[in-house]
Structures are given as C-alpha cells and as structure tokens.
Amino acid sequence: MTIDNLIHVIGGTFVVLSVLLGMFVDPRFLWFTIFVGLNLAQSGVTGWCPMMSILRKLGVPERRTSAPV
C-alpha cells in the first residue's frame, strides 16, 4: 500500500469513527470530524498532510514499484 492509499483509508476511518462516536457517545466527537475534513481540504490545496510525514518516517512507500515482466 502506498502513502496516498493509506491517507484515504486513515481519513475515511477517522471520519466514520468520529461520526459514530458523536452519535452514540458524545456530540463533541463531531469536532474531530470537522478537524479531519479541514485537514483533508488543506492537504488537497497545499499538497502536504501531517500524516504523510508520519507515514514516510514509518517507511511506507510513496509509489508502487512496477512488477517485473
């Protein structure tokens, strides 16, 4: 999996989790949903996301290597 794939998976998971927590635990969890949405919008404009830096430090590849033929 590449950094781009993981950014989508992590962002989507955070949104779903925070909405569920906001519905069933405490509505203040919805602020986390807003934070994630703003972060995704900011990364779309600037091309930089804090999670990208974390994933790079963990050694997640940026691109898929093509399979030998």
Overall residue-averaged pLDDT value: 91
Envelope shape: elongated
Percent of sequence in beta strands = under 5%
What's the structural domain tally?
1
What is the CA-CA span between the terminal residues? 20 Å
Continuous helix count: 3
Major beta-sheet overview: none
Query: How many β-strands, per DSSP?
Result: 0
Regions with little confidence, pLDDT below 50 for 5+ residues = none
Which radius of gyration do the C-alpha atoms yield? 15 Å
In N-to-C order, the SSE pattern is: HHH
- Secondary structure: helix percent: 55-70%
**Class from secondary-structure proportions:** mainly alpha
Describe this structure in words.
This protein is mainly α and 69 residues long. The chain has one domain (3-57). The chain is 68% helix and 0% strand. It has 3 helices and no strands. Helix 1 (3-24) crosses helix 3. The longest helix has 22 residues, at 3-24. The chain is elongated.
Describe this protein with a few key phrases.
elongated; single chain; mainly alpha
Give the SSE layout.
Blueprint: H1 3-24, H2 30-46, H3 50-57
Helix pairs in contact: 1-2, 1-3
Short description:
With 69 residues, the protein is mostly helical.
